[in-house]
């Protein structure tokens, strides 16, 4: 790994902010590195306020969307809430449908089948709407590129309201309203909302017309926080406020569906990391292994006994998913090695029997292993479908645009995307993708990077610092947990490998005459020889709390050692 230390702000700026906030220079440095340079900005950062959320009517087409929904309700029309089968889509559908159903009965939900219909708006879904007399579809986390589908619906007298956050194409669908902060003609102040976040802005706008305040819809933020974490959008600006209060809802008054999941685990208070690794995979497993509607059913359920039953079913889906993704990852790694493609600029693998529901997870695993832009293909009907994942700094969506001659359709983000193509185009695409990446990627991006916020002394690590660092949460892209480097450390003779096959490294270190502090390095057991015999070493780590038998102590959560 390459270690990159962030530029240190000017000392005078550090001193000015430290004095203004009455904090030490290290905390001031961390804030300045996050773009926080004044007392007022620090106040908003440490004390997010719901009152700082933007007016939803600043979003292009919001007034039109609200008027069309109000018209549908006044006329007694049937409204279909439609969303993708992943966490962002299913939480958005649960949010929108449960809000509308709280005061209007003619609302139903639709999640496309991952295997039969694929991603996004489908002709089958529109036919379902026509067959069941729905005249308005509210699409969430999808639809901004569904030009032909929306035109098809229009021919049938069905209107669309699109709530999306993906990058639009050059032409927008002919929907009644297209809510997407990434629209070039949209001046909404924050463009990093997830799909569920855009849905929340719509219910915020609907509520304001009904005399509701933000306090009347805040209980929906457990869904929004989960989507923010799962969709890996930046936890900055408005997302930070939504995630902050959404975590409060999850920990203090979660909806019945979340409570049914949380009650199965031994965890008192969930962080955004827990949401990403505990709640999100279970919600995702429904769409991956069975059908996304199972997730919507759980998230909208109001009876605890029924929710426990739904949660139990989803737990089984998640267990099955884990087994499958491990099995396919082993096969995919074998394919790369067999074809001797480890030294290329990309990893592209394909097997027609791989389960479509887990290829995205497998792509992430391959990216972690070889640190290359990666695509995992499988057969989907008469075409091939793939999930793409990228490395830090490289825009895989742009790379796919450079291969568009061989692609049927694609969509997604900078770091994650999906596509379909004809089987006969697979080899052409594979060669073109390698060529595009080779020509456009900075070779440095192919070496995993650890970005270090600051170099510190062990003596500076104390409970007061930990209390302040906790207030930097929730962490995520744009506001990652602070990472530190310490130099000339020595193990006290305690270092050892722990866990299965001694895969992890446990040690206890000092620095000159500093106090002793324990450290844990997961999957770093192979670095034991670097620290034994009191050899001096440098380490990169975050600061963590370790709770054992009721006692809480600080520890270094190691990321690398040199």
TrEMBL record:
Keywords: Exonuclease, Hydrolase, Nuclease. The keyword Nucleotide-binding does not apply. GO terms for molecular function: exonuclease activity. Residues 452-560 form the RecJ OB domain. Residues 349-439 form the DHHA1 domain. Gene3D superfamilies: 3.10.310.30, 3.90.1640.30. Residues 78-228 form the DDH domain. Belongs to the RecJ family. This is Single-stranded-DNA-specific exonuclease RecJ. The lineage of its organism: Bacteria, Pseudomonadati, Bacteroidota, Flavobacteriia, Flavobacteriales.
